[in-house]
Design brief:
Elements: H1 5-11, H2 18-31, E1 36-43, E2 49-63, E3 66-76, E4 86-89, E5 95-97, H3 112-115, H4 124-137, E6 141-143, H5 148-163, E7 184-188, H6 192-204, E8 209-213, H7 221-226, E9 234-237, H8 251-267, H9 270-287, E10 292-299, E11 311-319, E12 322-326, H10 334-353
Helix pairs in contact: 5-8, 6-9
Length: about 350
């Protein structure tokens, strides 16, 4: 896209160093011609507001052999280029922020390049290059399915592979067993929810060994259902239900087996699959220490103006060590008022029950 020099000049009407800023943005356009420029109102932490030039677009980030287009937004202060831009991720509807050392829960980007900004040594092109380098080490966004149906479709595709015996999800961790402690995950209970959690976790390929534990000798229906799946690295404890498939099984038999699997997933325990997929997402965050934001139950006392000792589901940064941070807001809004009301109701009930 050709850089609209005059158009940008008009947008920068109130900027102190307009010519310097335009020259730098022309250089940005040389390397990243797809950015789109506009003037919008930026709200600072002290609630003050200012109309600032900003531009949005994507930057290519190579991560684990794949290229991702990371959407970002730069706000250019009116003292630019003597002050660094304010940078944010701009996730789409099917993206969520992965909180890390360079990105906070609101998507604001923090980099050494920004902290050490000094004109004329520092420039936006150099900032973007460092941003790409840092995001290649720690991807700041992850994709989420647009609906429960889409997430279940992914699971169905996985099941279709493993029932045909062609799954490439195997004990990848065991290949480096001398230097890596295998990830072992246990699912307790072989009912519909237990089966859903087992398959959803297996589908993500995050467990070197997955154990389905059923403490009841008499409850076998769930594991009888699981018998139709030849799931890699899954072990059933206290329930003998596995039947080995003959290597010479015909394609027709595999197709029949796959159809049984598909039917089971479609018609049984739809609610369980939703919960199972959510559980798998939580497990993946903990196992891989992803520092993602999840809504989980936590002691709410001291947050959002809540004084009572109650547990509520709040947005938290979750990782290998558990909850590292509760995402809070100092703004008095409807959500905060409802949280306080819920906390008060729960505490009142606890008092009546003498808990």
């Amino acid at each position: 896209m050709e850089f609209d020099c005059e158009g940008v000049r008009r947008l920068l009407g109130k900027y102190k160093f307009r010519d310097l800023t335009i020259e730098e943005l022309k250089n940005v356009n040389t390397f990243f011609p797809h950015f789109r420029y506009s003037v919008d109102t930026y709200v600072f932490k002290d609630s003050s507001q200012k109309d600032l030039l900003n531009f949005t677009g994507t930057i290519p980030v190579m991560y684990q052999g794949n290229t991702y287009n990371i959407p970002i937004r730069f706000w250019i202060l009116d003292s630019h280029p003597f002050a660094p831009p304010i940078c944010f991720l701009k996730p789409t509807a099917n993206m969520e922020i992965s909180v890390g050392k360079h990105v906070d829960a609101k998507g604001r980007i923090y980099l050494p390049y920004l902290q050490n900004w000094s004109h004329p040594k520092s420039a936006i092109v150099g900032l973007i290059k460092e941003m790409i380098a840092k995001f290649q080490e720690e991807l700041p966004l992850y994709s989420t399915a647009s609906s429960g149906e889409a997430r279940q479709a992914d699971l169905l595709a996985y099941i279709a592979k493993i029932t045909k015996g062609v799954s490439d999800i195997n004990s990848k961790g065991w290949a480096n067993h001398e230097t890596k402690t295998p990830n072992k995950i246990t699912v307790v209970g072989s009912g519909e929810l237990g089966i859903a959690c087992t398959l959803a976790i297996a589908a993500k390929g995050i467990a070197d060994k997955l154990v389905l534990l059923d403490l009841s000798e008499g409850t076998k229906q769930g594991t009888m259902d699981l018998d139709i799946f030849n799931v890699p690295n899954v072990e059933i404890s206290k329930v003998s239900m596995w039947s080995d498939h003959d290597e010479a099984t015909s394609y027709g038999a595999w197709a029949q087996l796959s159809n049984r699997a598909m039917e089971l997933l479609r018609v049984k325990g739809q609610r369980s699959w939703s919960v199972g997929l959510s559980v798998a997402d939580l497990v993946e965050t903990v196992v891989n220490n992803k520092k993602k934001v999840h809504s989980v139950s936590v002691l709410a006392q001291g947050y959002y103006g809540i004084d009572n000792e109650v547990f509520l589901s709040l947005p938290c940064v979750l990782g290998a060590s558990g909850i590292s941070k509760v995402i809070t807001s100092t703004t008095k809004d409807t959500v905060t008022e409802k949280l306080q009301s819920s906390a008060s109701s729960i505490h009142s009930l606890q008092q009546r029950l003498k808990l």
